[in-house]
Amino acid sequence: MKICIISYDFWDYDKYIVETLCRRGIEAYHIKISSVTHSNFNERAVNALSKTFLNKNLKTEKRQKYVLDSLEKLGHQDQILVLNPDTFDVSTLEKIRKYTDRMITYLYDNLERVPVEDKLHLFDKIFSFDIIDVQKHGFEKITNYIYLPYTPKETQHPEMDLFYITSYDNRRVSMIKLLAKKLIDQGLKFQIMVIGKKSWKHQLANIFIKVPKNLFLIFSIKKIPHNDLPVYYKNAKVLLDLMREGQYGLSFRVFEAMSLEKKIITDNEAIKDYDFYNPNNILILNESISNIDPSFFEVPYEKIPEEIYYRYTLDHWVNKIFDLDTKR
């Protein structure tokens, strides 16, 4: 069987799908469009002028051509999974479809945030992690997945109480400021990294008048290599997960925490509806963030039953997405 994954893959999650398929003896390929950028300053300048005066993004066109050229070399695929379908125009998706018997998509973002309704008729199956979209549009419900290897808590020796890394988002930054003050008041040790182009403003001026010794709050425009993240995760007892506005599904942070047996603090109340939910392991923040309690950091993590854990593994995920052997 030949399967191709087409995605932007900014955070390098999708490569794990390909690795999992290859381990199953499937010919799997990844066309990663985020690797296609402007070759030089002249290309960037020309594209800026094109977007301004012609309302035409040459980089987008370059990426779509790259996908079609790659498929021409790879040939016919039994299945093609397109992530981030908003990246492509309808005509490109129609051409992609000619290379496969089954074209499917998984919507990483909800339709409220990234509307792609005009393109969904081209797919044989539509998966979504967002419960609102699933209920409204009849998509197939599936969560994100555990991609990290299982690492028991007994093998880790965290020095931090809490760790969080996130892309820049105004809502999240506002909550981080409030949460940080709560953690400081309780003498908890934490590290928070906010990554994104808008972070430069916070690099110039610290948001706290006096920075306590136990506080590590970093704003950066430079992306942290994905392979480095587990080192940070393992050094904390608890991982933080804050939603974007309009987000209702579970982020990858939840599944990273599961694989490393880390507790989670989140503002996503929907997590209560999942079979792995355990109030001992998961603290759901109230609006005022007044329910942070130091005892949550001290009470030991309770292991998730194996049969429940498996339902969120990438191995189970590819079975469902690609309709593979599901005997288990």
TrEMBL record:
The record's annotation in Gene3D superfamilies points to: Glycogen Phosphorylase B
* Domain of life assignment: Bacteria
What protein name does the entry list? Glycosyltransferase family 1 protein
Q: What is the lineage of its organism?
A: Bacteria, Pseudomonadati, Bacteroidota, Flavobacteriia, Flavobacteriales
